[in-house]
Specification:
This protein is mostly helical. It has a single domain, classed as TorD-like, CATH 1.10.3480.10. About 65% of the residues lie in helices and about 0% in strands. The protein contains ten helices and no strands. Helix 1 packs antiparallel against helix 10, helix 2 packs across helix 4 and helix 9 packs antiparallel against helix 10. The protein is globular and about 50 Å long.
Length: about 220
C-alpha cells in the first residue's frame, strides 16, 4: 500500500476531480477540469492496484478530452441533470434521494453544520450544501487535512480518518449508488454515465478502505 500521506493525497485528488466533473462545465470550470484529468492520468501507476482503477481510468480518459466539443458536453449536462431523462432529471443533490423523513432544509442544515466544524462556509459556492460536488469536495478537504497530519501528528491524522469515514457513510456513500444508477439509465448522458460509474466504484471502494484503516488504527473512531 502507498504511504498513508500519499494515499490521502491521491484519494483527495480523486474526490476533487469527480466533484468537478459533476458541475456545469462553463468556460471557467472546463479548462481546469481537463487539466486536472490530464494531470491525474500521471497517477496511473499509483492507482493501478486499486479495484476502482478501470472505471476511473475510463473516466479520466474521457475528461481529458472533454474540451474537444464543449457545446455537446454542456448540452449533455443540461439534458441529464436539468430537463430530459424519463422519470425526471438526475438531480445531483442528496435531498432528492434520502428517506427517513428528512426534508431538503434539514439535510442542508445538517451538512452546513458539518462544514462549519471545519471552518468552511457555503458563501459564494453557487451550489447547495447537499450537491454531490460540494460533498465530494469536502471529502477532498478532509483528505488534505489527513495528509498534512501524517508524519507530524498521528493522532490528528487518525481523527481525520474517523471524520472522513463518518461523513462518507452518512452522506455520499448513502445516496451516490442511487444517483449513479439513474445516470446509467439516462438515455443521452454520455460522459456523465462514465463519471457516475467511476464515482460509484470509487466511493464504495473508499468506504471499504476507510473501514480497514479504522480497524488498523485503534485511535480511529
Amino acid at each position: 500500500m502507498l504511504p498513508l500521506a500519499a494515499l490521502a493525497r491521491l484519494r483527495g485528488r480523486t474526490y476533487r476531480a469527480i466533484g468537478a466533473a459533476l458541475l456545469y462545465p462553463d468556460d471557467r470550470r472546463l479548462p481546469s477540469l481537463v487539466e486536472l484529468a490530464r494531470e491525474m492520468r500521471r497517477d496511473r501507476v499509483l492507482a493501478a492496484s486499486f479495484a476502482f482503477y478501470l472505471p476511473w481510468w475510463r473516466c479520466l480518459d474521457a475528461l481529458a478530452k472533454a474540451d474537444a466539443e464543449p457545446g455537446s458536453l454542456r448540452s449533455a449536462y443540461v439534458r441529464t441533470f436539468l430537463v430530459e431523462p424519463i422519470g425526471g432529471p438526475c438531480v445531483p443533490q442528496e435531498s432528492a434521494y434520502v428517506d427517513g423523513g428528512k426534508g431538503m432544509g434539514e439535510v442542508i442544515g445538517e451538512l452546513e453544520r458539518e462544514y462549519a466544524l471545519s471552518g468552511l462556509t457555503m458563501a459564494g459556492t453557487g451550489e447547495p450544501a447537499d450537491h454531490i460536488a460540494v460533498e465530494l469536495d469536502f471529502m477532498a478537504f478532509l483528505c488534505g487535512e489527513e495528509a498534512a497530519a501524517w508524519g507530524s501528528d498521528e493522532r490528528e491524522a487518525e481523527r481525520c480518518l474517523g471524520r472522513e469515514r463518518a461523513f462518507l457513510i452518512a452522506h455520499p456513500a448513502r445516496w451516490l449508488p442511487a444517483f449513479a444508477e439513474r445516470l446509467g439509465r439516462a438515455p443521452r448522458a454520455g460522459i456523465y454515465r462514465i463519471v457516475g460509474e467511476a464515482a460509484h466504484a470509487f466511493v464504495q471502494h473508499d468506504r471499504d478502505l476507510l473501514g480497514l484503516l479504522a480497524t488498523a488504527s485503534p485511535g480511529t473512531p
